[in-house]
Design a protein that fits this description.
alpha/beta; nine-stranded mixed β-sheet; five-stranded parallel β-sheet; 11 helices; binds flavin-adenine dinucleotide
Length: about 425
C-alpha cells in the first residue's frame, strides 16, 4: 500500500511515522526545502492539555468586537471581503454558547491528553532530542480579578481530571524562580504539573531523519496543485514537478488544506489565524525561565528551548498574509522584559509569523469526503504541537478501518459540519 502524505508539518510527519509503523510505503510531499518550515517552525513549544480551552466561548464575541476598534489587542479581527472568513466567523459565533464551549473544550482536552501519551511513547521509542522539559507549565495572572476568571475557566479542565495547583505570587516564584524579582507583577497563577514543552521544529526534523532510515520518501520543494481522480478515488496528486500516484492520500497542509481540498469538493472549515513569535539567545544568562508558561493578561507565551527563549503572541484574522515588521513584536518583548529582565538577549531577536489552521470548534478534522481514499488530518489550530501524535494515530486507525482509541465525536468530516449547524 503506497500512501502519499501532503504536507511535512507536524501533522504530516507524525502521520508518516504511524503509517510506516502500520506497514505503509509512504511518500511525503512539501513545497518547502525542509520539514516543519511553516506553522510548525517556531511555535510556542507548549504541550499543554492544561490549556485545552476552546477559543469560542461566551466572552469571545465581545473580545472580537473590541478588537475591531482597538489596534493594540492580542486578538485582532481585520474585516475583509472574504466569504470564507465570514462563514468561519458565523460558525465560530454559533460555538460561543456556554454549552458548546464546554462540549468543545472537553473534546479538545480528551484529544490533547491522548496525544500527549502518544507523544511520550514516540519520544521514548525514538530518543528524539527536541529541547524537551517535563516540569509542567505555569499560567500567570496580573490581578486578582483575572486570576478568579482564569480559575473559573480552568475548572472545566480540572473537573475532567487535569492536575492543577493554584498559586499566590510567592507560589509562582517558587515554581519558577526566574520570576522571583518580578513576583509583584503576578497576583497568582495556575501550575499544571503534567504539561510539558519543547521545540516542535527540532522534533519534526529529528523524526524525519528516523523516517528516512525506515524508507519513507520525502519530496521537498514540491508544490501540490491538484489531483487526478477516477470516480470516487484519487489516483494521483498533481504537483509542479509532475504527478505522484498512490493508493491512499492524506491531506495535512495546515491552513492550506481548505484551498487544496476544495479541488476535490471538500469544504473544510479551517481559517488561518496569524501568530507572531520571536526567539532570543540566552547563553550566559541566569534569569531565563526554566519552565514555559503564559502571561494570561497579555496573552504572551514563553518557552525556553535549549539556549534560546521563545516568545509568542497574537491571534490575527488577516487572511493568508504572513508578513511581519519589528513593531509587531514590541508588546511581547516588553512583557518578557518586564517578567524576565535578565532572561535573554533582547536586542538579538529572530522574528517569525505564521498561520494557525483554526476550526471554529477548536477541534481538528479527520475522516474523508466523497473520495474514499483521501484522508483528512488538519485544523489543529493553536494546539497542533500538543495534538499531533494523537491526530496521527487517529488518522492511521481510521485508514486501517479500526476504531480510534478515543471518541472522535465532532471531529469527523461531514459529521462535524452537521453538528455545528445543529
Ligand atoms: C505563534 C504560534 C504559536 C503556537 N504555539 C503552540 C503551542 O505552544 N502548542 C501547540 O500545541 N501548538 C501551538 N501552535 C500551533 C501549531 O504550531 C500548529 O497547530 C501546527 O504547527 C500545525 O501543523 P500542520 O502540520 O497542520 O501545519 P504546517 O506546519 O503548516 O504544515 C503544513 C505543511 O504543508 C505545506 N504546504 C502547504 N501548502 C502546500 C502545497 N500546496 N504544496 C506542498 N506543500 C504545501 C507547508 O509547507 C507545511 O510544511 C502555535 C502556532 C502558532 C502560529
Amino acid at each position: 500500500m503506497h500512501t502519499v502524505i501532503l504536507g511535512a508539518g507536524l501533522m504530516g510527519v507524525t502521520t508518516a511515522w504511524e503509517l510506516a509503523k502500520d506497514g505503509h510505503q509512504v511518500t511525503v510531499i512539501d513545497r518547502q526545502p525542509l520539514p516543519a518550515s511553516e506553522t510548525s517552525f517556531a511555535n510556542a513549544g507548549l504541550v499543554a492539555p492544561g490549556h485545552a480551552l476552546t477559543w469560542a466561548s461566551p466572552r469571545a464575541p465581545k473580545i472580537l468586537l473590541r478588537s475591531l476598534f482597538k489596534k493594540d489587542q492580542a486578538l485582532q479581527l481585520k474585516l475583509r471581503a472574504d466569504p470564507r472568513m465570514w462563514s468561519w466567523c458565523i460558525r465560530f459565533l454559533k460555538n460561543c454558547t456556554a454549552d458548546r464551549a464546554r462540549t468543545n473544550t472537553l473534546r479538545k482536552l480528551k484529544l490533547c491528553v491522548y496525544a500527549q501519551q502518544e507523544f511520550q511513547k514516540l519520544v521514548a521509542e525514538t530518543g528524539i532530542e527536541y529541547d524537551g522539559v517535563r516540569k509542567g507549565l505555569l499560567y500567570i495572572y496580573r490581578d486578582e480579578q483575572s486570576l478568579g476568571r482564569g480559575l473559573a475557566n480552568m475548572e472545566i479542565l480540572r473537573g475532567a481530571g487535569q492536575r492543577m495547583e493554584i498559586l499566590d505570587s510567592k507560589g509562582v516564584a517558587r515554581v519558577e524562580p526566574a520570576l522571583e524579582a518580578s513576583r509583584s507583577r503576578a497576583a497568582g497563577g495556575i501550575y499544571c504539573p503534567d504539561d510539558e514543552q519543547g521545540d516542535a521544529n527540532k522534533f519534526a526534523v529529528g523524526l524525519v531523519d528516523r523516517l528516512k532510515t525506515k524508507g519513507v520518501a520525502f519530496r521537498f520543494g514540491t508544490t501540490v496543485t491538484g489531483f487526478e481522480t477516477e470516480g470516487d478515488r484519487v489516483t494521483a496528486v498533481v504537483t509542479d514537478k509532475g504527478s505522484v500516484s498512490g493508493d491512499q492520500f492524506v491531506l495535512a497542509l495546515g491552513s492550506y488544506s481548505p484551498i487544496i481540498g476544495r479541488k476535490l469538493g471538500l469544504a473544510l472549515p479551517v481559517y488561518p489565524v496569524k501568530g507572531y513569535s520571536v526567539t532570543l539567545p540566552t547563553e550566559g544568562r541566569n534569569g531565563t525561565p526554566e519552565i514555559g508558561g503564559v502571561d494570561e493578561n497579555n496573552l504572551v507565551a514563553w518557552c525556553k528551548m535549549g539556549q534560546r527563549l521563545r516568545l509568542t503572541s497574537t491571534a490575527e484574522f488577516s487572511g493568508y498574509d504572513t508578513s511581519h515588521t519589528p513593531a509587531r513584536f514590541a508588546a511581547m518583548l516588553r512583557t518578557a522584559r518586564d517578567l524576565f529582565p535578565q532572561g535573554a538577549e533582547y536586542d538579538r531577536p529572530s522574528y517569525w509569523a505564521c498561520l494557525r489552521p483554526m476550526t471554529p470548534e477548536g477541534t481538528p478534522i479527520f475522516g474523508r469526503g466523497r473520495h474514499r481514499n483521501l484522508w483528512i488530518n488538519t485544523g489543529q489550530g493553536h494546539m497542533g504541537w500538543t495534538m499531533a501524535c494523537g491526530s496521527a494515530r487517529i488518522t492511521a486507525d481510521l485508514m486501517a478501518g479500526r476504531d480510534p482509541e478515543i471518541d472522535t465525536a465532532g471531529m469527523i468530516y461531514g459529521k462535524a459540519a452537521a453538528a455545528a449547524a445543529a
